[in-house]
User: Which sequence fits this backbone?
């Protein structure tokens, strides 16, 4: 059986006044059906662009996207509409991603209407069962988005994404604007839905503790490139790329007896516009040396299922 | 209680409301705490708990209307800031007490160079000439790790982390004794957050600054604060040393906050979140404001004032049905 999602050498560039912005560069991976891939990285690393490109909200510059073994990179018209039923997205900001003039009930009915698969009476029924599923109280269903708090709004966003029974959902920072107690409720909901419906997620976030909790596999991005990819537990117990190490060390621990000792990175993200061919982490890397800036870094399988893009990976981890 | 003379800042019975039409939002409902010099107090709580309102009330920068301070005193080194004339307050802001705002993108004036913005505060509080002020501003930039060459650049030319460092430089410009830091790292990426926290900690140590750190991030509190106050619906529901709150927490809400956090060490299949959401601040439930969400609710919780009780030395909890640990 092929994996549900496979992307091969996917790139997305944007033409900007200063040159060509390499937002996503040559990314390849697969996601098995019913599993969750977490994509982590800091702002501007291309993780959201990757998600949006994979579900055809943006056109890929190069590479291929396979859904159930079928290439959907360039499908259009009726075929694209079929694809849209299979792939959906939950957006980061539950405030701006809902139409302020549509009642909650209507917001959820809209994709159902678009699908053309439901009669009028079925619409109401399906919408109401979706709202039951994600836990939106009956009394709130005729409300407008501004009457709801962030957590409830995000539930509406999830119900809307689930409406067409998709196989694959890109969750783009779905809990980062929520308070911790509400965040935990939404994470549990997403995991319950996966258990019940077997839906596959790509979970894009900058929050490493969230990603560890929800993902089977994790892919770490830096300036458009995947620098490390491995099963979730392995990444946290045995991170190998210098950037992943720095990222993990920078998380403030709630263990008060364990003072934070972050790997001090020099400077901040360098520009993704017209990047040089070598390692993009090179200017900030504590292990950098001459050669790193010259040769492009290739993802190498250093142990089963564990991929790292660093030419010094063996030296610095021995 | 500690010696009266050691107390640097003491807030007593602070209450603030916001009026919106006929509705009254009870944002801060009788908050009291005290701090000694050089200490860092963390104010922890969720959106709408009243954390930022407390800080702004101390500095007296709440917009009035809609905000109104109903009562309370803020004693800074024995002087009640609530009674100080506005003219004197202008001197206190920046010189004695300074604030770092949450969002570095909106805290800076986009039409002024960052150098001019730092100079503005410096000249207001000191008798500096143009050259002297510029010199001092450049020193401040270097102190927060920004090259003095960038003195004449505008905010849009800086990244988020650098803008936040500029905001910190501005807050420290007049060497304040108390720093109110409102979510200073929330808008930043983790590696940059680590740099900024490290900077704040170093500066605090160097100048002996006291700090109130407002955040919803418990990890940041664990790494920076000496004491912690957990705020819910405008009230302190638990207060104590970092150890009291992180290890020996007693309030069901504090417990719920920790249970909501995904852990790095434990493989929990599901988190145990607090059910429901924050109460409507225009209609706070009677009794304990947390009782509609509390798993240990008893009849007493539903009415009357629940008082803050000292459950061990220096550790206070506002709960009438404290559960034994474990």
Assistant:
């Amino acid at each position: 059986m092929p994996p549900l999602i496979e992307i091969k050498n996917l790139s997305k560039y944007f033409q900007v006044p200063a040159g060509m912005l390499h937002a996503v560069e040559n990314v390849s991976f697969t996601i098995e059906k019913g599993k969750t891939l977490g994509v982590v990285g800091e702002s501007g690393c291309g993780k959201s662009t990757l998600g949006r490109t994979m579900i055809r909200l943006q056109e890929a510059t190069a590479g291929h996207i396979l859904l159930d073994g079928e290439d959907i990179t360039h499908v259009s018209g009726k075929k694209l509409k079929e694809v849209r039923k299979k792939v959906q997205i939950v957006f980061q900001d539950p405030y701006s991603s809902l139409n302020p003039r549509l009642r909650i009930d209507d917001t959820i009915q809209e994709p159902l209407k678009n699908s053309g698969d439901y009669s009028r009476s079925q619409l109401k029924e399906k919408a109401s069962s979706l709202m039951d599923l994600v836990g939106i109280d009956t009394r709130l269903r005729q409300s407008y988005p501004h009457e709801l708090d962030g957590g409830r709004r995000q539930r509406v966003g999830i119900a809307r994404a689930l409406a067409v029974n998709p196989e694959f959902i890109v969750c783009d920072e779905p809990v980062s604007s929520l308070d911790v107690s509400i965040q935990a409720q939404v994470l549990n909901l997403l995991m319950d839905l996966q258990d019940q419906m077997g839906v596959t997620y790509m979970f894009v976030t900058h929050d490493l503790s969230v990603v560890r909790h929800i993902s089977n596999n994790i892919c770490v991005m830096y300036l458009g490139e995947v620098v490390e990819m491995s099963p979730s537990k392995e990444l946290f117990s045995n991170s190998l790329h210098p950037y992943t190490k720095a990222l993990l060390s920078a998380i403030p621990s709630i263990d008060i007896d364990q003072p934070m000792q972050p790997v001090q990175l020099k400077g901040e993200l360098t520009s993704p516009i017209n990047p040089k061919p070598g390692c993009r982490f090179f200017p900030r890397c504590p292990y950098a040396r001459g050669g790193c800036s010259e040769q492009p870094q290739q993802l190498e399988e250093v142990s089963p299922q564990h991929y790292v893009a660093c030419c010094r990976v063996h030296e610095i981890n021995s | 209680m500690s010696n009266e003379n050691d107390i640097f800042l003491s807030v007593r019975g602070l209450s603030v409301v916001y009026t919106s039409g006929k509705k009254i939002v009870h944002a801060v409902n009788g908050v009291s705490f005290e701090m000694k010099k050089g200490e860092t107090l963390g104010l922890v709580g969720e959106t709408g708990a009243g954390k930022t309102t407390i800080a702004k009330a101390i500095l007296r920068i709440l917009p009035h209307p809609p905000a109104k301070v109903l009562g309370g005193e803020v004693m800074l080194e024995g002087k009640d800031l609530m009674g100080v004339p506005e003219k004197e307050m202008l001197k206190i802001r920046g010189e004695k007490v300074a604030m770092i705002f949450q969002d570095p993108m909106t805290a800076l004036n986009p039409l002024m160079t960052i150098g001019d913005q730092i100079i503005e505060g410096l000249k207001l509080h000191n008798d500096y000439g143009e050259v002297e002020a510029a010199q001092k501003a450049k020193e401040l930039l270097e102190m927060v790790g920004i090259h003095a060459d960038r003195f004449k650049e505008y905010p849009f030319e800086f990244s988020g982390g650098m803008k936040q460092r500029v905001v910190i430089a501005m807050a420290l410009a007049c060497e304040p004794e108390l720093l109110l830091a409102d979510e200073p790292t929330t808008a930043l990426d983790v590696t940059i957050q680590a740099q900024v926290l490290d900077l704040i900690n170093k500066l605090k140590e160097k100048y002996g600054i006291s700090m109130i750190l407002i955040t919803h991030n418990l990890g940041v509190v664990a790494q920076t604060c000496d004491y912690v106050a957990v705020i819910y619906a405008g009230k302190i529901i638990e207060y104590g040393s970092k150890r009291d709150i992180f290890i020996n927490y007693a309030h069901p809400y504090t417990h719920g906050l920790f249970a909501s956090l995904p852990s790095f060490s434990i493989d929990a299949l599901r988190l145990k979140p607090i059910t429901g959401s924050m109460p409507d601040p225009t209609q706070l439930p009677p009794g304990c404001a947390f009782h509609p969400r509390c798993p240990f609710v008893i009849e007493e919780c539903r009415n009357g004032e629940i008082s803050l009780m000292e459950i061990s030395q220096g550790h206070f909890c506002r709960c009438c049905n404290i559960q034994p640990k474990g």
